[in-house]
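Human:
I keep going back and forth on a fold encoding question. Comparing notes only helps if you start from a blank page. Show me how you would write down a chain together with its backbone fold. Write it directly below this note and I will take it from there.

Assistant:
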Amino acid sequence: MTSLLHTDIRENFFRSHITFTSVNEVTEIARPLARLGLTYFTFDRHYNDNSRICLTNSGKWIEHYWRSGLYKEAVFEKDPMNFFNGYVFWDWLKREPIYSAAAEHDIDHGITLTEVCEEYSDFYHFGTNCKAQMSHGNIMQLMEAIYRFIAHFKQKTGKLISKAATEKELFPVYGIEKRLIGPSDLNEKVNKGDLSEFLRSTEITKLFLGEKFSNRYLTKKEVVVIASLIESGTLQNASESVGLSRNTFDFHINNIKNKFDCKTLFQLGCKIGAISERNIYPFKIY
C-alpha cells in the first residue's frame, strides 16, 4: 500500500497507477450518463485504515486534486465511518477551495452518493459541466437512474475494483465544515429519448447487493419476485400478480432462499427486510 503523505511522489505514479490507466475504461462505462446531463463521474472507496481506491473518467482533475493537496480539505476524505447511506449535494459544502478548482476543469453542480459497509465506505461522485446549471430538482428527478447506473457500474467493474484494491493509496484525514443552503426550484426535465437511450446503454442482468450480503446478487427475475412478494403478502397472490405459475414462482423463491442461506420463508422475509429500496431502484424505471 503506497502512501501519498510525502511530497516526493514519483511522477510515474500519475502515469502507471490504475486510477489513471483505467480512465478510458471508466469513461466508456460512464458514457451513458451524458444522456442524463452528467459528464463527470468518480468512484472512491475509502477503507477504515484511510487507504482508498479511486476510479474516474476525469484523470486530469484527479491528478490536480492529488498534486495540489486538495484532498486535505475534502469532507469525503474525513473518517468514512462518519457517513451514512444517502447523498450530499455539492453546494451543501464549502465551495473553496475544492469546487472552485473543479470548475476550472469544467466540473460543477454535482451530487455524491454514499454506501457504508463494515470495512469501507463507497462514494459515487456525479457532476455536470459548468454551463449545465442543473438544480437540485433536476438531479432528484434522475435519482432512480443514478442508482441504476451504480448497479451497472458494479456489474461492469468487479474485476477492475478487485485489481484496484491491490494498489490502494494511503491518505491523511482532514476535516471540512459543511454549509447548508435552501432548496432549488425544479426546472428542466430529462428528454424521454435520452432516458430511453440511457436505459438501453445500462442494461442490468445482475443486481449486486454489496458487502453486507457477501456480494451476492439477484437476477432481474428474482427482483421482480421479491417485489411482488412484498406487495402481495402471500405466495399465491404474488405469483398471480407477476403472471407465473405457482410452481415456477416457488422455484424462484427457493433459489433466492438458497442464495441467502434461508430455510424458511420467515428467514427470507427478515433478509428481504434488510434490502433497502435503493437496491431495488435500478429495476424500477423500465
The two ends are 42 Å apart (CA to CA). Confidence is low (pLDDT under 50) at residues 2-8, 172-188.
